[in-house]
């Protein structure tokens, strides 16, 4: 009654359906896994845990463009004041990176920027540098052309020596030349410890 071919076909169908059932089962397992992992991640969101692969960056990792930072505090060479505060600058200025003191400052993220974590924090490694209206090229021209009148030192805010330079007409020429050399070798700098303004 059952031919050899029918039995063989039956086995093949049986084999096929059993595997189909397995595949369907595996697929639903996978879907369940995915949905449960999504559920845990959304739970993590609501409990405010930082997800490193999430869309939000930590506020403290934002670049400076997104922050409003205080200026470095000037302790004016008062070591105890700096130790009390924990940060700040003893001195300002310096030409090379190694000469410049670095400090922490308080930064706040701009209100419209979305990020994770505290929006106000301290950022380290800010240089103790400030700029005022002192331009190197202008001062050099003053020194070259009007050095015998002490104009360069007047402009740098070194009024005392400027008056001396004016009264001696630039040290009868010697001080005039010495100051040009000092200026070029960066030993004659603004009195207020500001750096040369690079934004001409
Ligand atoms: C240095 O700062 C401390 C703490 O602010 C202050 O008590 C002290 O008078 C200051 N010293 C000088 C020399 O200004």
TrEMBL record:
Membrane topology, as annotated: Multi-pass membrane protein
One GO CC term, this protein: membrane
Cleaved signal peptide residues: 1-23
Residue span(s) of domain TM2: 133-181
Cross-referenced Pfam families: TM2
Main location: membrane
TM ranges: 135-154, 166-185
Keyword annotations of the record: Glycoprotein, Membrane, Signal, Transmembrane, Transmembrane helix
Record's subcellular location: Membrane
Annotated InterPro entries: TM2, TM2D1-3-like
Family: Belongs to the TM2 family.
The name this protein goes by in its record: TM2 domain-containing protein
Gene of this entry: 106091276
């Amino acid at each position: 009654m059952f031919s050899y071919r029918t039995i063989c076909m039956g086995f093949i169908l049986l084999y096929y359906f059993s595997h189909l059932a397995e595949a369907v089962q595996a697929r639903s397992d996978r879907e369940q896994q995915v949905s449960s992992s999504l559920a845990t991640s959304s739970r993590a969101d609501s409990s405010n845990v930082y997800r490193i692969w999430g869309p939000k960056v930590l506020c403290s990792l934002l670049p400076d463009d997104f922050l409003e930072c205080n200026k470095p505090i000037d302790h004016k060479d008062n070591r105890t004041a700096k130790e009390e505060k924990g940060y700040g600058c003893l001195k300002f200025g310096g030409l090379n990176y190694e000469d410049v003191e670095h400090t922490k400052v308080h930064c706040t993220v701009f209100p419209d920027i979305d990020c994770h974590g505290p929006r106000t924090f301290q950022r380290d490694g800010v240089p103790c540098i400030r700029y005022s209206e002192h331009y190197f090229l202008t001062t050099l021209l003053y020194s070259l052309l009007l050095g015998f009148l002490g104009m360069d030192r007047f402009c740098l805010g070194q009024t005392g020596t400027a008056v001396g330079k004016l009264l001696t007409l630039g040290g009868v020429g010697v001080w005039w030349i010495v100051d040009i050399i000092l200026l070029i070798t960066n030993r004659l700098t603004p009195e207020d410890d500001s750096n040369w303004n690079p934004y001409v």
